[in-house]
Design brief:
Number of domains: 3
Strand content: 15-25%
Largest sheet: 5 strands, antiparallel
Low-confidence stretches: 55-59, 110-120, 456-475
Distance between the termini: 67 Å
Radius of gyration: 51 Å
CATH architecture of the largest domain: 2-Layer Sandwich
Helix content: 40-55%
CATH superfamily of the largest domain: Histidine kinase-like ATPase, C-terminal domain
CATH class of the largest domain: Alpha Beta
Order of helices and strands: HEEHEEEHHHEHHEEHEEHEEEE
Number of helices: 9
Mean pLDDT: 78
Shape: rod-shaped
Oligomer: single chain
Length: about 475
């Protein structure tokens, strides 16, 4: 940053020096031209017989001179110290005599003028040639001045720049170094603190400078990111702990059943009972593993979907096949209200979500369970509601988190608390949402909205469709 700042300042100072040098040169040139014009006006005050030999009364004779020339370039009069050489060439004198006043800047050899008018080798002159009429004949009045004073002033200015500009550049570079260091000191402080953070210090945060500028906002943003990462790590750790706990219980029971069956010879009926219990817990383990796999894939953003045209009533009916015996045993009624329509979605994942919703209602709800569907050209809305007491107030905001469970209202296994988390994962994979609702008549309800993809086969059939558990009743 300091190097870039120094280069930029060098360019700026060089440009400023060039501008000032050019401005001074222009102003000095204008002043010389005004002096020559005034000198010519003074000499022309006596237009009938201007006396150029007395021009030294008006300007320094070492720096200025005047001549009267014929159009052919012959010298008629010349100021003291100028010598006999004409100030203009024949072509220049002839051009001026037939034209108008002209300024001329030229180099002349010292041999052509007196040694007092310049350096030992060459001299730069500024001339003003004015056409006049002398005794009825055309002539040219030339007034001139050497530019040695101007060149000396410009040289002194360049010498001053050669001393001042490097010093100014060093001072500004040092100031830029200090300013950049002061500006980046909070960044270095944050960097050192970030290097000290580790997994053993999950609550550590970066220092926030009290400047209220972009660096302070960056520190606040990074601290917010660290806070979100910390909460995500805590959720992951809690997820692993809960998953380990849920797996340990059925595994322990399964091992106990198998060990008991192997301790001593048993009748065939007892062995069958032990194997059936082992098979039940094995099924529970398989389902738990599948649920954990779905959640793991969703957390990694890899939950695959295979959208196909699906008959909605048939898909809902198949989703509840495995739960009908449980509903009969619990003396619960499950009704399906859905329009006879084909929709484009992943039928396997959607059946899994509906299955988990109904299973959750069977475990924790009461009364009739209603599975209702409503279809628009872009959205499929599924709602599963029961007639129980609703979600507990302390759990309503967390029911979609893994391993969050309420008290069961029916006998049987309590469940792992992954059902609603799976529902939310399936909805998110479709690009939809899942949320709890409060049915008008009380109870608990979960509404899932799934965006639909249009397809040619998605034609609504205008008749009501029945199922084994209910009739079509769009709401």
């Amino acid at each position: 940053m300091t190097a870039v700042f120094a280069v930029a300042m060098a360019v700026v100072l060089a440009a400023l020096a060039g501008f000032l040098h050019g401005w001074l040169a222009t102003e000095l040139q204008r002043e010389i031209d005004r002096s020559l014009g005034a000198h010519a006006d003074t000499l022309l005050a006596n237009a009938s017989a201007p006396d150029v030999t007395s021009s030294a009364r008006f300007v320094d004779p070492d720096e200025a001179f005047a001549q009267l020339l014929t159009p052919a370039g012959r010298v008629l009069q010349s100021s003291g110290g100028l010598g006999s050489a004409p100030a203009l060439t024949t072509a220049q004198a002839e051009s001026v005599s037939t034209g108008r006043a002209t300024y001329v800047t030229q180099y002349v050899a010292i041999a052509d003028i007196d040694h007092r008018l310049g350096d030992p080798d060459r001299d730069v002159q500024r001339l003003l040639a004015t056409p006049i009429t002398l005794r009825g004949q055309p002539a040219v009045l030339v007034v001139g001045q050497t530019l040695s004073d101007r060149d000396e002033a410009l040289t002194r200015q360049l010498q001053l720049f050669a001393v001042v500009l490097p010093v100014a550049l060093l001072v500004t570079a040092a100031a830029g170094w200090l300013l950049a260091g002061a500006a980046l000191r909070p960044v270095e402080s944050m960097r050192r603190r970030a290097a000290e953070l580790s997994a053993q210090d999950p609550g550590g945060r970066l220092p926030v400078p009290g400047t209220g500028d972009e660096l302070a906002r960056l520190a606040l943003t990074l601290n917010d990111l660290l806070e979100r990462l910390h909460r995500a790590m805590e959720r992951e750790h809690r997820f692993v702990d809960d998953a380990s706990h849920e797996l340990r219980t059925p595994l322990a029971v399964l091992k106990a059943e198998l060990d008991l069956a192997l301790t001593r010879p048993r009748p065939r009926e007892q062995l069958r009972g032990a194997l059936q219990a082992a098979a039940t817990y094995t099924d529970e383990l398989v389902r738990l593993a599948e649920d954990l796999l779905v959640l793991a894939r969703m957390r990694g953003g890899r939950l695959p979907l295979h959208r196909v045209p699906t008959d909605l009533p048939a898909m809902l009916d198949r989703a509840l096949d495995s739960l009908r015996p449980v509903a009969v045993t619990a003396e619960r009624t499950v009704r399906i209200h859905a329009p006879d329509v084909q929709v484009c979605l992943d039928p396997i994942r959607t059946r899994q979500a509906v299955l988990n919703l109904v299973d959750n209602a069977l475990r924790h709800g009461r009364g009739t369970i209603t599975v209702a569907a409503m279809v628009t050209p872009t959205i499929l809305t599924l709602e599963v509601r029961d007639e129980g007491g609703g979600f507990p107030s302390d759990l309503e905001g967390r029911v979609f988190e893994p391993f969050v469970r309420g008290a069961p209202t029916s006998p049987g296994p309590r469940g792992a608390g992954l059902g609603l988390a799976i529902v939310q994962a399936v909805a998110a994979a479709h690009g939809g949402t899942a949320r709890t609702v409060r049915p008008p008549g009380g109870g608990a309800g979960v509404r899932v909205e799934l965006p639909l993809e249009p397809h040619p086969a998605a034609v609504l059939r205008r008749h009501q469709a029945g199922s084994a558990s209910g009739v079509d009743d769009p709401w």
